[in-house]
């Protein structure tokens, strides 16, 4: 390793406090007592710097300085003394002293070690090149500029073992946190650490060995261990083709590098996300198509569920699937249609397994994912889910209607991610909508239905709340759907005037809209628009219809009709959960009137526009067709937000279609011969 030779002459420089302060690995120190001893030491060996006291016996440091200048004009001489005064300093300057340092008790305070090392370094740099070399000549001239440069500058000696650094500027010290004497004489690899890229180091090494320039970005470490990105440029310096030094430039580019790395990581994440989405689309494209086809083309719920299960298994990433519904008697989730479940006869999830993903999906209404290894050892899912796979539970809902759950078992090769979960959420809504549509078709087509009768008192539908507040009887007549999706309930109130009911509405927590349509001697015809979800929407979402709703003070009777093929438990649970004052009083199986005009009703509903149907319903529920009319066409038009002429136009069109359809159904009387 490179070491500088420093000669300490006299009492002040030779004391242990000074000589021991020089780093052994960088500086070799020798001592001399007087002028003659010093000159003898200089004559025999190469010395990089002389540090001398002023008082040297019969002669002094100024005499020694003069002798050194005659024999070694460029050798640095530092006058270091506690005996000097202004006259001594002036004499030293006149004799071309390199530096004058007043000695103190603590060498660290007066800085003699740093000054001596700096001067030794400068002398070593000058001595390694010839004065005739243009690079050498310019080096001295440029040294002051390099010292003040804003970037780190280093010079390494390729002729010494391990190419030690022989010069560093202040910017390099600031950049690395090391002092000069920590750096000089060492190879620059001391800045490397555990995060430094070995390939970058190899490239640097090869460039140095081949005596060629190179510029790299390398992760280095400061003295305090803090990493920083160093833009390092190394260039060889030649003299007539011979390598003399290596010049290095260092710039801290940590901020820019971190921005680039963040951008690169973000780009890699985006690419990974894109690949994941592409895999997701490839995986679920088939299942989406098949589920949509099953929803649209199936003629029964059983067919829909069977086709969906088949579609799931067509994708190799899914092991098995089954549909489950809650059993009314045991409250457990029991499997119906299934695929990939082998010969398992009975498949269910107990009601008390509250943390099971199937129960959680039904409770929360959201897709629930669970890894196989996280499930209890006695869970039935272990029979179908691979050890490193998982289970996805997909709730099936249409608005407030609950149609159970679809359970899918995922293989190890295809763990579920957020994208696929979102698709399952959408598929659950598609399947729920399809089941709801099939139930509605059955409601219209079947001659059998279930009639549910609820009785009780408030809390109950808004009609019952108003009846209880006013103490009158209110009877539901029908409802009309508005364009905003809310329902206008037509009711008749007996035993109270309209103003009392309108006043009572304002006392409710969520006041409904109340409009007076007509008044009679002992009753009034009203329109009520509930503030939140109405009982009409609740029943329709479960494929049912309201057949009767009467409230008389604190007593309520509600009759709901649902298809015979529908599960009435869902309707019962929803009604009781929403209206805590009601309870199921009766459940009866009924048959429709065989003389009912179901097909005619379906034909009219298809033939009438939404506005025409709303108009004729509004007119009928407002007793517009009674005589004398309790309400004018203009009043009904105002309540619908249309003009009187538009109301009559829609009404006449609807009447024409209805009469035309009825006349087609009626056979003409036989004509006389």
Automatic annotation (TrEMBL):
CDD domains per UniProt: PAS, REC
Taxonomic superkingdom: Archaea
Keyword Mitochondrion: no
Database matches in InterPro entries: BAT_GAF/HTH-assoc (IPR031803), CheY-like_superfamily (IPR011006), GAF (IPR003018), GAF-like_dom_sf (IPR029016), HTH_bacterioopsin (IPR007050), PAC (IPR001610), PAS (IPR000014), PAS-assoc_C (IPR000700)
Cross-referenced SUPFAM superfamilies: CheY-like, GAF domain-like, PYP-like sensor domain (PAS domain)
One annotated GO biological process: phosphorelay signal transduction system
GO molecular function: kinase activity
Database matches in Pfam families: BAT, GAF_2, HTH_10, PAS_9, Response_reg
Response regulatory domain mapped to chain residues: 5-118
Residue stretches making up the PAC domain: 212-265
Record domain PAS: where: 138-217
Keyword terms, alphabetized: Chromophore, Flavoprotein, FMN, Kinase, Phosphoprotein, Transcription, Transcription regulation, Transferase
Residues with the 4-aspartylphosphate modification: 53
NCBIfam families membership: sensory_box
Protein name per the record: Receiver/sensor/bat box HTH-10 family transcription regulator Bat (Homolog to bacterioopsin activator)
Originating organism: Natronomonas moolapensis (strain DSM 18674 / CECT 7526 / JCM 14361 / 8.8.11)
Lineage, opening ranks: Archaea, Methanobacteriati, Methanobacteriota, Stenosarchaea group, Halobacteria
Gene: bat
């Amino acid at each position: 390793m490179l070491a500088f030779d420093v000669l300490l002459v006299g009492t002040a420089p030779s004391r242990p406090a000074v000589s021991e302060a020089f780093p052994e690995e960088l500086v070799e120190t020798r001592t001399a007592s007087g002028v003659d001893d010093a000159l003898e030491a200089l004559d025999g060996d190469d010395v990089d710097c002389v540090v001398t006291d002023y008082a040297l016996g019969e002669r002094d440091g100024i005499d020694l300085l003069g002798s050194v200048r005659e024999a070694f004009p460029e050798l640095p001489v530092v006058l270091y003394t506690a005996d000097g005064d202004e006259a001594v300093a002036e004499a030293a300057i006149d004799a071309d002293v390199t530096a004058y340092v007043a000695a103190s008790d603590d060498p660290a305070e007066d800085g003699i070690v740093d000054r001596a090392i700096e001067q030794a370094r400068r002398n070593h740099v000058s001595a390694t090149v010839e004065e005739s070399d243009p690079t050498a000549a310019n080096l001295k001239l440029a040294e002051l500029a390099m010292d003040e440069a804003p970037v780190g500058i280093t010079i390494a000696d390729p002729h010494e073992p391990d190419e030690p650094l022989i010069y560093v500027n202040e910017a390099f010290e600031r950049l690395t946190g090391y002092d000069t004497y920590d750096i000089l004489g060492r190879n620059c690899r001391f800045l490397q650490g555990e995060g430094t890229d070995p390939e970058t180091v190899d490239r640097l090494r090869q460039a140095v060995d081949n005596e060629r320039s190179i510029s790299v970005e390398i992760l280095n470490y400061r003295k305090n261990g803090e990493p920083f990105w160093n833009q390092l440029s190394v260039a060889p310096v030649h003299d007539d083709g011979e390598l003399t030094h290596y010049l290095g430039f260092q710039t801290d580019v940590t901020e820019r590098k971190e921005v680039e790395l963040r951008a690169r990581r973000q780009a890699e994440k985006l690419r990974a996300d894109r690949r994941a989405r592409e895999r997701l689309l490839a995986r679920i494209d088939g299942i989406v198509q098949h589920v949509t086809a099953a929803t649209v083309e199936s003629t029964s719920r059983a067919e829909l569920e069977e086709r969906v299960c088949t579609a799931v298994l067509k994708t190799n990433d899914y092991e098995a699937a089954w549909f489950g519904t809650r059993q009314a008697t045991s409250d457990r989730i029991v499997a119906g249609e299934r695929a990939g479940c082998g010969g398992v006869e009975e498949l269910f999830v107990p009601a008390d397994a509250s943390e099971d993903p199937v129960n959680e999906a039904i409770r929360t209404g959201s897709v629930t994912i669970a890894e196989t290894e996280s499930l209890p050892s006695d869970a039935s899912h272990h029979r179908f889910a691979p050890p490193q796979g998982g289970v996805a539970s997909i709730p099936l809902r249409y608005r407030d209607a609950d149609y159970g759950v679809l359970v899918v078992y995922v293989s190890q090769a295809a763990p579920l991610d957020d994208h696929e979960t979102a698709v399952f959420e959408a598929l659950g809504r598609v399947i729920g909508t399809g089941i709801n549509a099939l139930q509605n078709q059955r409601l219209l087509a079947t001659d059998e239905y279930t009639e549910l009768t609820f009785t009780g008192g408030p809390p109950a539908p808004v009609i019952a709340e108003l009846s209880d507040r006013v103490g009158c009887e209110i009877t539901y007549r029908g409802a009309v759907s508005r364009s905003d999706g809310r329902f206008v309930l037509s009711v008749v109130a007996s035993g109270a005037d309209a103003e009392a009911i309108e006043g009572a509405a304002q006392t409710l927590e969520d006041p409904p809209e109340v409009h007076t349509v007509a008044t009679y001697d002992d009753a009034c015809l009203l329109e009520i628009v509930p503030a939140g979800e109405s009982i009409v929407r609740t029943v329709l979402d479960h494929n049912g219809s309201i057949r009767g709703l009467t409230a008389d003070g604190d007593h309520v009777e509600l009759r709901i009709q649902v298809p015979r093929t529908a599960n009435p438990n869902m309707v019962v649970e929803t009604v009781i959960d929403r209206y805590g004052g009601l309870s199921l009083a009766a459940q009866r199986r009924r048959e429709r009137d065989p003389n009912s005009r179901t097909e005619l009703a379906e034909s009219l509903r298809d033939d009438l526009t939404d506005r025409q149907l709303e108009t004729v319903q509004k007119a009928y529920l407002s007793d517009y067709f009674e005589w004398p009319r309790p309400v004018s066409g203009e009043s009904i038009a105002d309540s619908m937000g249309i003009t009187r002429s538009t109301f009559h136009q829609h009404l006449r069109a609807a009447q024409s279609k209805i009469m035309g359809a009825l006349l087609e159904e009626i056979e003409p009387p036989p004509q006389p011969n």
